[in-house]
Write a structure and sequence with these properties.
By secondary structure, the chain is mostly helical. 77% of the residues lie in helices and 5% in strands. The protein is built from six helices and two strands, in the order ααααββαα. The chain has a two-stranded antiparallel sheet with strand order 1-2.
Amino acid sequence: SMESISTTINAAKGALDDSLSRFDEYSMLWKDNVEETLAKFNETKPDLSMFTEAIEQFEHMDLKIEAMPDSIPVGSLLLKLDDFKLALTAETATWKAAYSKQLNKKTQADMEEIFAFADDLIKRLTRPVEDLEDVRLAMNSLKDIRENEIKFDSMMTPIEAGYAMLAKNNVKIS
């Protein structure tokens, strides 16, 4: 009868809702906007550890998605998850790529800062020394090197680690 079909459907709906709630932890993949989330993330002036944490969050999701069963029995229904798992993995890849691209931009900007400083120093130090003013300029250049040495040394490790992470995630480095 119609009443028993309705009862069966309502019972299955409750069990289905319970089964589907296990995927709520992934909802940010399709609910949140990648660009808006990344813009907010960039406002925090993220360092390498923040990028690492963000990217590893998606790598952890990938592992959990991979470990999901291919189907879930729900009463008399069988939910096949193959396409859903594929879609989730594609979404995590999109998020990882967005964060990786931003890390690439930051790392590139840091490298460009170092290169610009080095280029400026090379120009100043390769000038011929003909008088005391030239000696003063050369001494100031050496002073700049000493003052910036720690800063640039502290930038190199995160730059190297950032490029290593980009390579690990198969991001084309520009």
